[in-house]
């Protein structure tokens, strides 16, 4: 028995477990990165490289 995709709730696929698709895996990754780097307002349209300006 497979768990549903944590992103959209569809049945997970073996290839992309625990997600239903690579897209949902990407969404989860973006969320993880957003949580870590706190990107304001961004979901998956922009790609902001993590800034390291503390060594300025
Ligand atoms: Zn999904």
What does this structure look like?
Interacts with GyrB. InterPro entries: DNA_gyrase_inhibitor_YacG (IPR005584), Znf_NHR/GATA (IPR013088). Keywords: Metal-binding, Zinc. Belongs to the DNA gyrase inhibitor YacG family. Inhibits all the catalytic activities of DNA gyrase by preventing its interaction with DNA. Acts by binding directly to the C-terminal domain of GyrB, which probably disrupts DNA binding by the gyrase. This protein is mainly alpha-helical and 56 residues long. It has a domain at 1-39. The protein is 29% helix and 0% strand. The protein has one helix and no strands. The longest helix is centred in the middle third of the chain and has 16 residues, at 22-37. The protein starts with 21 loop residues before the first helix and ends in a 19-residue tail after the last helix. Bound molecules: zinc ion. Zinc ion is lined by residues 5, 7-8, 10, 19-21, 24.
């Amino acid at each position: 028995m497979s768990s549903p995709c944590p992103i959209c709730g569809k049945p997970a696929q073996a290839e992309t477990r625990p997600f239903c698709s690579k897209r949902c895996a990407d969404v989860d990754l973006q969320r993880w990165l957003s949580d870590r780097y706190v990107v304001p307002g961004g979901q998956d349209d922009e790609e902001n490289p993590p800034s390291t300006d503390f060594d300025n």
